[in-house]
Amino acid sequence: MAAKARFLLLTGLLAAATWVCLSAVAASAFDVPAVAFGDRFSPLFGDGNLVRSGDDRSVRLLLDRRSGSGFISSDYYLHGFFSASIKLPKDYTAGVVVAFYLSNGDVYEKTHDELDFEFLGSRWGGQWRVQTNVYGNGSTSHGREERYLLPFDPTLEAHRYSVLWTPTHIIFYIDDTPIREVIRHPDMGGDFPAKPMAVYATIWDGSTWATDGGKYKVNYKYAPFASEFTDLAVVGSRADPVLRVPRRGGGADQEELLGLMTADYALMTPQKRAAMRAFRARHMTYTVCYDAVRYAAAFPECDNSDEEREAFWAWGESKTVVMKTRGRGRRRGRKAGAGARARSDVASS
Prior knowledge:
Blueprint lengths: L1 H22 L13 H4 E5 L4 E3 L5 E6 L5 E5 L2 E12 L8 E8 L10 E7 L8 E7 L10 E4 L9 E7 L3 E6 L2 E7 L14 E8 L19 E16 L4 E2 L5 H10 L8 H14 E8 L14 H4 L5 E3 L5 E2 L6 E2 L5 H11 L1
Antiparallel strand pairs: 1-4, 2-3, 3-14, 4-13, 5-10, 5-14, 6-7, 6-13, 7-8, 8-9, 9-16, 10-11, 11-12, 14-15, 16-17, 18-19
């Protein structure tokens, strides 16, 4: 009966969200208030490599020979909208990884859930890439990675990166453009994140895999590598990570969930979907949805099409996305050997 009641509740929430979606005009920017660092977050590691601003509205995370750095939210959340404006390190950043993500790995070591933005550094003249991951119940052995080239230089100014997580769907945003949507499919089972998670931000040495499958390592000659986090925003129900329930009882948590699922950032309008498809067509370099080399079985939530499949090699690498050489103002195609390098990169990530 409890399962049926939850199903009916989610069905009602989806119906309400669909009605709002059909009747509302999406705003040009999400109205989500930023919070002070000390109100919702605390340092995780790095000591002096985590530098808070005087007004406590921004944080710099540094990586040097001594240590990386990171912070964590003071609470765990069962669903929500989590956002930060991030400016990435500049110049030579091969091997550097900056991450903004949700996880409960500290509580569920072998069955953890995770939703990631991972920013992967580059060599001189290269581009930062961003990878999104979706893990549920320890599903890292069949992870749901996707990678994209950014349509701007993320080292010149901050851009907003956001994750929406609801019981029925997940959306990743860059600024106000959705770049990935994962709709919960019955065949996903425990692969869909369902346990309370905390919010993390880190910078660390990913030399073993981050740039061309580990071919290019962090060069500490260019340290410290500095990433800046501002406009931190958290909208969601605080929850007990062990009991897996919101801390507020009664109907308050259901009201919060309804508010979350009917907010503009939770609604995939036709305009948003068109923007998402355009972004993915132009900037996505890898997706598990077309990776027949690593994964024999298809992922049930993937919205595959024969037309789109033609744009990808058998290992999920794009045939059409072109690299942009930074600072030279011209575009070049991938070299013939790029596919083999991509396979090595994908396997190590």
